[in-house]
Amino acid sequence: PLGDNDCHHGEDAGVVCSENLRLVNGTNRCSGRVEIRTSGSDEWGTVCDRTWDLKEVDVVCRQLGCGSAGSAPKGAHFGRGSGRIWMDDVNCEGTENTLQECRANTQGTNNCVHGQDASVICSDTFTLNVRKIRLEDGPNSCAGRVEVYHQQQWGTVCDDGWGLPD
Q1: Which of 15, 52, 88, 156 is geometrically suited to a Cys-Cys bond with 48, CB 3.0 to 4.6 A?
Q2: pLDDT at position 151 over 70
Q3: 16-20, 43-47, 148-152, 160-164: which range is least confident on average?
Q4: How far is 99 from 93, CA to CA, in rounded Å?
Q5: Distant-in-sequence contacts of 151-157, Cβ < 8 A, 24+ apart
Q6: Residue 52, SS3?
Q7: Does the keyword Transport apply (predicted)?
Q8: Hey, what CATH topology would domain 21-122 get?
């Protein structure tokens, strides 16, 4: 049960995800310029904002565990990216689990410029049932020490029995 254990902080559980989506240069982990990595590539690139609206933002926010769409800033709101522009003409229904499931031109060839890099501002942080969960002290929003909010304070999760399903 929560709060009842014999663990010490050397046993804090951690997570590193292998996501192909990240937010860069935002004011918190749930806002920023959208960057994706295509399947089989280590190269991060941006998404063109030409058809970008709240449906696409909603999918990104849900995928990253950041609640729902807050706003869909245009014009490289969080700065211009570099490298490839991997997605253009993105068209989500709003029910997809990942941005990569949305219809889009994903060939990396388009007539977009980095001044059109898509951005998101999500409504909140991740909530699971009534418990709040976050990752802290990691290199990005998809890695770090697992913490749970319980009885008005944040605490760590013990790694006893911790595995991939967790």
Answers
A1: 88
A2: yes
A3: 16-20
A4: 10
A5: 151/2, 151/3, 155/2, 155/3, 156/9, 156/12, 156/13, 157/12, 157/13
A6: coil
A7: no
A8: Mac-2 Binding Protein (3.10.250)
End-to-end Cα, the chain, rounded Å: 16
Percent of the chain having pLDDT more than 90? Answer: 42
Helix or strand (DSSP H, E) at 61: helix 54-63
- The pTM (predicted TM-score) of the whole model is 0.67
Sign of CA dihedral 82, 87, 93, 99: negative
What is the helix (H) or strand (E) element at residue 122, kind and residue range?
Answer: strand 119-122
37 membership: H or E segment, kind and range: strand 31-37
φ and ψ at residue 91, rounded to 5 degrees: -140, 100
CA atoms of 92 and 47, how far apart (whole Å): 13
Token duo for residue 113: 């410029």
pLDDT digits (tens, 9 = 90+) for 90-113: 999 989 989 999 999 887 678 899
For the chain, helix, strand, coil in percent to 5 are: 10, 35, 55
